Amino acid sequence: MNKDKRRIYALSITAFAVLLIALFINVKTPRYLATVLTVSLAVATLVLVRKRVSFSINKKEVLLLNAVVAVLFVVLREMTGLYFEYYKNPYFISTKILLEYVLPLVAIIVSSELLRSVLLAQKSKLATVLSFFSCVFAEVLCFYSLAGVNNFNRFMDLVGLTLFPAITANVYYHYLAKRYGPLPGMTFRLITTLYVYLMPVCAHVPDALVACITLILPIILLGLVAALFEKEKKKAVRKGKKLGAIATVLTLAFVLALSMLISCQFRFGALVIATESMTGEINRGDMILYERYDGQVIKEGQVVVFLQDKSKIVHRVVKIEKIGNETRYYTKGDANENLDMGYRIDSDIFGLTDFKVAYMGYPTLWLREIMKK
Q1: What are the tens digits of pLDDT across the range 31-63?
Q2: Domains along the chain?
Q3: Residue among 78, 90, 109, 116 at smallest CA distance from 213
């Protein structure tokens, strides 16, 4: 192994290991830690690795396309405030916000794109894989830290709202950096990340919807750039490549659907049964799919999801009373001897269900147990 290859491997492994460890370090502001690490790694890589690559002649066009799409994304996202309403932005630019958020994020984005571009130019599979995950970890550090994940719900927030979107986004950034250099991805990231600090008011878009959009948008862009600017298009596609493309599409569809269900921000949601109160009809470890309650007629015998002390309970309605203008629902777990304490009203009902997937929830229960340890 020559000297250059040893440097490449050492830098790739170091970047991967250091940023992975940083996720678990309990610091108050992980952005500062991510800034120091990514800038240091980028400088070391630029100094020690001399090999560069000549990029596609279409790099200016791709840069412009990404800038335009980024601006359109920002405009359309803020226009959704007409539906979701607007709120006063607590992160509107100030000296404090500039130092705590804007400058660290600029440094992380610029340095990680430079690091990515140089390592991809080496045409090393190990460097490619490790640089990909290093950039994913750096992006997660911008907005989240595993040190703050102290319960299962926060872990699922990390996975669904931050990690999945970071993975698909970095697939696209890797594609751009390898063919067109660091500027297109850098420009897209700077515009879509930093605009929020320049807006006195912002659209109140649900986090889950933002996550779903940022999950799928990079893949759409990748297909668009490939269709517009890839010169050599082969008519015959190998069977392995077809299967790989199908697998990628199916995986993305699954991840998107799972994120939508877990988020509970859409009409349908999913919930894992963690107790044995409904054993017989619905067992511990099953996953139920429910439709959000929006005034539908509820009948006796209907299994409902209701809120009790901020927890979602899945029990059956066994009695309904109409007292004046108020409808009271009395519920009971099929395996319980007694009715639930008190009664539910319409505002307590979260969803209606009559569909389950047996055993599907066991991995979630195991993860929850691990998080409690």
Answers
A1: 888 888 889 988 888 888 776 666 777 888 899
A2: 3-263 (no CATH), 268-372 (2.10.109.10)
A3: 78
